[in-house]
């Protein structure tokens, strides 16, 4: 009954007894059967149905072995008429005829010849009886499901009663794990995913991919199974698993290897996870819930329900007037692989999110999309390949590409397909061919691929990507460095290309060789562990840990001051309750801003990096605007609602890379650029709320100068910082002997010492700074506690955070040969490729940091993500580490004493050792150590550390000087934007190190600047001028020796309010921001005053001409601050950049000819700027005019900009009236500017008047006759005033 199915928006049901399909919706009171369009269908009478009962019973006992249907048969899911029906020869309501279930006309019963089919009244009676029968069966199944589900809970709920009748009616059969007739891909009205009574005999799925589908048949139930079903025995889960396995055999034959891991059979990792959490290893399916049309499911907030006592509460929302953004309202997605028995932590998450962590990777979910398995297989093949993509071409091909990409993302949001499809689209359409270089050929290839995509040739496009990946065509190039600091040509080219792509910091680290060894292949051997890198990466991602009750946690025995919600460890009590949150809003303009904030390389699918995304959003006019608008809607959908996980599963995947730490391996996850854009948008929208949530406790939420304040606060507490260490310890110190005895015996406790020895010891006075190291930082964080704390402390991001971590994250580790990539499940912790990871980690540990601060108030305990410290008495620092070791694992923070350090003097080291050893904490004791990019400790160690840093920077400047000979613009950008900021940060955080930067200053003056400007040497006066800012005729390359103390003083002043709050406890965000702005403004004014004084003195010494030249240089230096970008067209050639830089400092351009090629005169700079024969004046003028016209086209449109428009004379109405009366002459071109000035000054309207002409005695005056060809450069319509054209 296709018409009925489309009108109701549901999939067809199956008759449980006969195994036949019924294309009828359940008939309930208030719902009426829709008979629209029924004349086009063939339905026989009830008599013919009864006569074919025997044939139906015989067909329902077919073998459960899947049979492959031939193309063109009745089971083929294509809307074409069937020539014959082999299952029956008469039309009947019993769905032995597959044509009837698919909505096609069976030739055995034609409405023009069948006498019985003409009676409309009889057909309606038959349909009404069938609907009533279906309604009765539905009510019976719901009652069985209710009894069975309540019995499977195993215990009476402690915080609630049985499911109310309003909820029990919404529970369907727990055995219902299959789908009805799925909608064809690309259909404009996707059908809702509804549970069916039989998962085996689903109708075949319609697909545009032409893959052959396997249709399994239903096995006949035994008597024992029917008895178990009637009794509601929970042991039938094994038969459900069998039927789910039979249903999962309906998988694509194309790409079977890639899709085989997504079957219904429980994976080994899932079994281990459930076993570790007490769930058992037997695969189990959860009772399926319908989503009624009256409203989604919610969870009552009148007391937390017990584990497993959560039901369908559609009517609960209406009765209590709960809004869609309130706690507990959103629907839990049906997940057959979700553990059946819920923990108490799961129930608490359900009360605030309406859902919980599903403890699986979500690859078995399809979100109601028919051919999701096909696209998962194609996506896996693409992410296993190292791709290199073309930039989107200009013109109509590029606009068509961006428009199609916007439609692909719109299809995800409209539930036509899932996110794998648009990601595969970018990979296969823009896949680079190395043998094609010309722009026209690239456009031709991309256009042909777009045509193939529209024709549905998806497998062919994916196969091309895989072939190129396995053949090694997409691989990178091996770059080698030369000796004595000179870089090879390939390194210089690669550096220049990376800078033009916006990867300035990565380019500098690449060129200077500071990439920590680079990425490792999964089969390489770890230099520290001695095992393959893939095994190291797997060990870095632990299994999920579900929080336990307080009674089950040994660390919380006897602890009464720490209260947890519902006695679940890690779920802190928030007396104010669950806060309400406003939705996050995006639009096309915000997406335009975000495109400039996203940085980094591409995600798992490869290719679409930050630069490509910026190109998609900005370069293609209305097509880019449509893409930005669609992605804004998608971002709001993901940040405010609870979409099906399959819809964004591919976006949530990460590309895992192992970096060589030398020694060791560091895991790095790279997320999809699209998802990073959403995270950046949430940070831009809710960043201030995150800063308030973390306050002055966790300084990793983007707080201004937060990381610098931590270093300044530690120095204020520990007065011995920057000490000059003595040669030996204190004489006759009893703690020296005790510490030595404890180290020799290896017994780090005080039990072996007598009471007399302990009483004779003097009081401990040792002070220092303890730096604590946590094991596997972000990956060990407890995901349950993180989501709980984020919901209460950062409510505006609660939905995006939950959507990102409600399933395991899929981490892709590519192989170097293009084979199927390794998959690692990110079950616990946070992905470091997530832009929200830093803030989420800080908020997750806020309860731990706050309890530590209240418990041990005598020490300063600053936090920056997982980098924690303690400054104060050594014994109090030992208490802090012991506190973290006891309570940190509850939140996923595992401190390692062996990797922790205590910074102190030699005299106090013995006391510090006894303080830590007495608690069994074996830490390392040092005189100084690096902390948050700065340094804490003695003066000698500080000087050695800074000298080593300066040596590395000197080598980096030398390499950039080598690059500057060929690419001066990108070398200048790398030094001023990246490398210079590195040593300026050290200047802001470490005092008294100005003199140590002298080698760096010499390298800049003697090597880099001569290579940059093409001069043999730089004088002292010239160097001071270059150190000025761009507006003061300089280049902004600061003198590190002269600016070190100024930077430190500015940072100290900016952090004054934050440091005070860290020591006293009261923090005001507004006051801190005001202090930072004041410090920055004061330092800028002081610098400008000094630079202006130097420029004026220099101009006074060299004359007025030099003073005017310096003034012009300060006003015309904006091109120096412009970041070189291939996307925005701001790159300059070496000659352009160097010649302009030399002219800025009164130096002649290099290789300037001796004579002018236009007039033959002697060539000088002045002659080149004024010669009207050589054409340089026109070239310079046309360049400015063309650039202005291009900007106007971007601001308005191409149709509003005209090139070289004809200028007509104009006059005011007063002047025209006077001319007509003969008081004045006709307007001339000389008066045009005056008339325009009057308009601007007085606002008088202008009217078009006849152009200028020569009026002779015998000529007839024509007001429209042109006499001169006066033209402007550009004409822009509605530039200053709507409806007027303005000439420039």
From TrEMBL:
UniProt lists compositionally biased (Basic and acidic residues) regions at: 7-19, 217-232, 1263-1275
Domain Tesmin/TSO1-like CXC span(s) in chain numbering: 78-123
Report the InterPro entries cross-referenced here: Tesmin/TSO1-like_CXC (IPR033467)
Region Disordered: start and end of each range?
1-81, 149-303, 1236-1275
Q: What is the official name of this protein in its record? A: Tesmin/TSO1-like CXC domain-containing protein
Q: Which portions of this protein are annotated as coiled-coil regions?
A: none
Spell out the Acidic residues composition-biased ranges: 1242-1251
Compositionally biased intervals (Polar residues): 164-175, 282-292
List where Low complexity composition bias occurs. 44-63, 196-207, 266-276
